[in-house]
Amino acid sequence: MNTHNDDGEEYKTITSTLSSFYNFYNYQINKLIKPRISKFEILSNQDKQLLLWYQKHTEYIQQCIMINKDFTEKLAVEVSTEWGVDSKTPHSWSEPTIEQFEMTQLILLQLTREWSEEGLKERKNSHNLIMNQLNSKFPNYIDRQNKKILVPGCGLGRLVFELICQGFNTEGNDNNYHMLFTFSYILKNCDLPFEISIFPFLDNSLTNFSKRQFQIRPIILPDISPIQKLNELNLERKGKIPYNDLISITAGSFIDLYGTFNVTDPKEIKDLKSSNKNKFDVVVTEFFLNTGNMIEYIKTINNTLAVGGIWINYGPITEENNKYGIDLTKEDLSELITNLGFKFLEKNDFEDSYFNNDNSLIENKQICEFWSCEKINDLT
Fold first, then answer.
1. Residue 352 contacts residue 366 (beta carbons within 8 Å)
2. Residue 220: C-alpha distances to residues 187, 277, 351 (Å)
3. pTM tops 0.90
């Protein structure tokens, strides 16, 4: 990565994000430990005797926070070097916001879903459907390295990595530095599987659990070492597929990087969008479509997908839709997709979960739409 201007807005965003990892320990102490101690102290002696376990459990939580600290600090230091930031002076990085600390907390949960054995149950629901479509469309394994796949909103990159392992030339895109930094760390620094312990459930209230031990349950990462797996595949295929060269990641807005021209776009953006037009054979959207303006998303998918290319989608179309101004029913969305240059090849829906914790008393279920479409014409 290039070194960034210390005075630039991007540099401030990058360093404040890194700082939200590096100082996550302080955030967790202030949010989880200090309030527990204060609440316990104001109890009467009689009530304290009823909760003899409480102080010991608080100590356990603090020990777990220290283990989280080992991971988040190391991640910040390793990634800072890659992004041209001085890793020796983390105290000089920009101050993180509360929202950035909350995103770091979310990353621990996201890691559980994307890079642990506990997340396999959820991942395989979408990944199996997506891979079945791709295997049917591109049965020649050796030729897949010539097929370009784009994954918008790639997050922590597990789907991108699985596509690489299947031999596809895959480009992930995300505009969230927390996600990009964490994926980069997992991809480049985990020599062995199951080498990292994190505690992602500390922020959950005990009222969400049947047993308090579930709050301090560790998650071991990653369930697969990307470095080890790619080495094994290179040996297995005897160099016929350049696995290490099949992956690329872009940082920025999906619409801004891959969408159609705007008259106000500077020349470098127009050149970038021009280079991405009709570039990809497949676009895969997984738990992405309802995170922004769906009309613009669909137009952008059309713009970057070659005529005859395939768009595979899996995820909900509900809830977040209203944030971006237009209410669309399932029927409306299907009609919109057709009007924007696509023909449905397959369409179904499934009940699924996201961030579901089997040990929690709260269950998270939603209906996910699955489809594959063929792009039949350009919009412009």
1. yes
2. 16, 41, 27
3. yes
